[in-house]
Write a structure and sequence with these properties.
The complex is a heterodimer of chains A (94) and B (196). With 94 residues, chain A is an alpha+beta fold. Chain A contains four helices and three strands; from the N terminus they run αβααββα. The chains are: A alpha+beta (94), B mainly alpha (196).
Chain lengths: 94, 196
C-alpha cells in the first residue's frame, strides 16, 4: 500500500528548502536563494507556505543596517519530512 | 529552481544534493575570536608582568580583569558587524557552547585567586582554554587546533611549577600565543584560502 506523499513537500523548491534546513541549525534567506537559484518572490511565497503549515519558523530581524530573514525547521517539520521520506521509500520499494 | 512536481526518484536525489550542499565551508575570518582573546590576554599579561616587576605592588593583579572587560565588548562588536549568509550549523552551536562553558570556567579560578593566596590561577586558565582549543579542533576536524590545544594542556604545568615567580606570567602569555594567536592566524589563513 502506497502512503500518500505530503503535497507541501512534494514540490521541488519547498523540498529543497526543507532538505537544507534539516541539516543546519538555521539558514539565511539569501543563502537559501543562492542554493536553490530561485527568484526572491517565488522563494518568499514557498517559505510562507511552509511557515503557515508550521514546518519552519521564520525570524525577520536586522544584521547591521540590512534586514535579515532566518529560517529554521520545527519539530513538526522534521516529523513531516521523515514521513515524506518513508512514503517515498514505499513508492520506490526501498 | 521552480515549483514543479518531482517524481519519487528525483525527490530523493534532490534531498541528497541539498544536504550535500549544506556541508559548510570554513567561514571567512573563523580565527577572529581566537585572535581577539589571544592578543588581549597577551597584552594584559605583559602589562601586569611589567607593573608587578617594577613596583612589586600586588594590587596590579586586579588588572587581569581587564581581559574580560576588553574582550567581551570587542567580541560583541565583531559579531554584530559580521556579514555572513552561511547557515548556522549544529557544529557552530556546539563550539559556541564549548567556549561559553570554558569562558565561565576560566573566570571562576580568576575570582578565587583574589581571595586565596598563591592560587594556581594561570595554570588553571591555560589548561581550560587549551582544552577549549583542542575540543574545537576535534569538532571541526582541524589538526592545528588539536595539536596546539593538547600542547597547551601539557605545557600548562609550567605555570604550576613557576607559580610563585613573575616568570609564570611570561609563560602564560607565551602559551596564549600557542593556543589562541597562532591557531587563530592559521584558521584565518585556511578560511581565506577556502573562499578564493
Amino acid at each position: 500500500m502506497f502512503k500518500e506523499l505530503d503535497p507541501l513537500l512534494h514540490s521541488e523548491l519547498r523540498l529543497a528548502v526543507m532538505s537544507m534546513l534539516l541539516s543546519v541549525e538555521e539558514a539565511d534567506f539569501v543563502y537559501l536563494k543562492e542554493q536553490t537559484k530561485a527568484t526572491s518572490g517565488n522563494l518568499s511565497v514557498q517559505i510562507d507556505k511552509l511557515n503557515e503549515a508550521g514546518y519552519i519558523e521564520v525570524e525577520r530581524g536586522f544584521a547591521g543596517k540590512r534586514t535579515r530573514t532566518v529560517c529554521k525547521i520545527t519539530p513538526v517539520g522534521v516529523n513531516a519530512f521523515e514521513n515524506y521520506v518513508e512514503s517515498l521509500k514505499s513508492y520506490l520499494k526501498l | 529552481m521552480e515549483n514543479k512536481q518531482l517524481n519519487e526518484k528525483e525527490s530523493l536525489e534532490l534531498i541528497a544534493q541539498m544536504i550535500r550542499n549544506t556541508q559548510k565551508k570554513m567561514e571567512k575570518g573563523s580565527g577572529i575570536p581566537f585572535l581577539i582573546w589571544g592578543y588581549v590576554t597577551i597584552a594584559v599579561s605583559l602589562t601586569v608582568w611589567y607593573l608587578l616587576g617594577k613596583t612589586g605592588n600586588q594590587h596590579w593583579n586586579f588588572l587581569w580583569f581587564a581581559i574580560p572587560i576588553i574582550g567581551f565588548p570587542v567580541m560583541l562588536l565583531v559579531l554584530k558587524k559580521k556579514k555572513t549568509t552561511l547557515p548556522k550549523t549544529y557544529i557552530d552551536k556546539i563550539i559556541n557552547y564549548v567556549w561559553i562553558v570554558m569562558g565561565i570556567s576560566a573566570l571562576i579560578p580568576s575570582m578565587a585567586a583574589t581571595v586565596i593566596h598563591n592560587f594556581p590561577v594561570l595554570f588553571l586558565v591555560v589548561l581550560l582554554i587549551s582544552a577549549g582549543t583542542a575540543m574545537t579542533g576535534l569538532v571541526i576536524k582541524f589538526k592545528p587546533l588539536v595539536v596546539s590545544g593538547f600542547g597547551g594542556m601539557l605545557l600548562s604545568i609550567l605555570c604550576l611549577i613557576l607559580r610563585a615567580s613573575l616568570e609564570s606570567i611570561l609563560v602564560f602569555a607565551a602559551l596564549f600565543l600557542l593556543v589562541q594567536v597562532i591557531p587563530g592566524h592559521i584558521l584565518n589563513y585556511k578560511s581565506r584560502k577556502n573562499h578564493v
